[in-house]
Amino acid sequence: MGEMIKLLDLGPEALKAELSQSLAQWEEKPFRARQVIRQVYQRCKLDFQDMTDLPAALRSNLAGTYLLQLLTPLERAVSADGTVKTLWELGDSARVESVAIPMEAGRRTFCLSTQTGCGLGCSFCATGKLGAGRNLSAGEIICQALAGIAETSLSSGPRVDGSERTSSPNLVFMGMGEPLLNYDNLKTALEVLNHPELAQVGSRRITVSTVGLPEQIVRFCRDFPQMKLAVSLHAATESLRRTLMPVAGKVSLSDLVEACREANLITGKRITFEYLVIPGVNDRQEDIQALARLCGLVPSKINLIGLNPAEGVPFRPPRAAELARFRDRLSSACSMAVTLRRSHGADIAGACGQLAAGQAPRRR
Ligand code: SAH
Ligand code: SF4
């Protein structure tokens, strides 16, 4: 038997070409391609044998040619708040985690990973403690979304109208790794997930979070001007940012601000700055002043995140009152919208910055 083809690694055009070629070879009608696509990308079926609207012969041809399931669930943890974290094993036995956040306003949010570790080493992040991992393939990124949707829609049962289609989810690229350092695969995955004939996730429902890489930010905004961009700022002065995020030694705040301004010109949308609140480190009055000034340079909004504890992270999380007080002080110091991100799944180490794929941090 030849090497199995990973259908989920293909971009929209390559996917259509591949399927139509195979169908012709098997003397099947061309419309079968649409059926297969609907089953995989809209019904989130990752086993051809479950596609009962396809003739048995076609199902077995498909199953003999294409590999759909690129991730095996190893562990699943369910938080008291309903958040589900899944630890996946990849084909080469690398591991990665993704998180399904419960319904809010009728939609689920899936937090996806793009790398199996992260070489950028932010001092507050569990993934950073792992060191560099490998890039996920486009298929591995897509598979996290499809498998997550399939699993959570099963538990909530079929819809009243009997259809299996679940409401379109939100996808946030805030799991393990730096999405913009895996740009080509991220791009293919976004094209497939967003495509009106494939997974059909609306652009406005997709957020990519980055540590703040200027060239890649501009490239992303050119390629996907409708999607949301979140930039991890976490410090508004050069010196503080360098102590928290090694990447700040290479990317200055002024270059980052410049890229964000350019991004805004391309997309016409405000940039979301993510700001981790770390008590005693970046929550002083002078930090608030610097943050308000910096954000004033870019059409932006600020999303605050209370630091979540993680192994090897030398900071303590803020108390709820500290977080609220920081938000209030910042709101009165600046004119942009300030929101507080609700953390989900902290009790299962499934919240922002806690994903480490069940691995102990690597010793350095
Ligand atoms: N590499 C990208 C995306 C993954 S991290 C980035 O850095 O933006 C997603 C978000 O979680 C980022 O804003 C990141 O700074 C934040 N984060 C990291 N460690 C955290 C922690 N311990 N508590 C809360 N948020 C954290
Ligand atoms: Fe990497 Fe993002 Fe974690 Fe920093 S916060 S180490 S960039 S995953």
Topology, pairings included?
Blueprint: E1 5-6, H1 12-25, H2 32-42, H3 56-65, E2 66-67, E3 71-78, E4 84-90, E5 95-104, E6 107-111, H4 126-129, H5 138-155, E7 170-173, H6 183-194, E8 206-210, H7 214-223, E9 228-232, H8 238-244, H9 253-267, E10 271-277, H10 285-295, E11 300-306, H11 320-333, E12 338-340
Parallel strand pairs: 1-2, 6-7, 7-8, 8-9, 9-10, 10-11, 11-12
Antiparallel strand pairs: 3-4, 4-5, 5-6
Helix pairs in contact: 5-6, 7-9, 10-11
Tell me the name of the CATH class of the largest domain: Alpha Beta
Q: What share of residues are in beta strands? A: 15-25%
What value does the Rg take, in angstroms? 21 Å
Strand order of the largest sheet: 3-4-5-6-7-8-9-10-11-12
How many extended strands?
A: 12
At CATH level 3, the topology of the largest domain is: TIM Barrel
The helix/strand series, from N terminus to C terminus, equals EHHHEEEEEHHEHEHEHHEHEHE
Corresponding CATH superfamily of the largest domain: Aldolase class I
- Which ligands, by name, code or SMILES, are bound? S-adenosyl-L-homocysteine, iron/sulfur cluster
Number of separate structural domains = 2
Percent of residues in helices: 25-40%
Structural class: alpha/beta
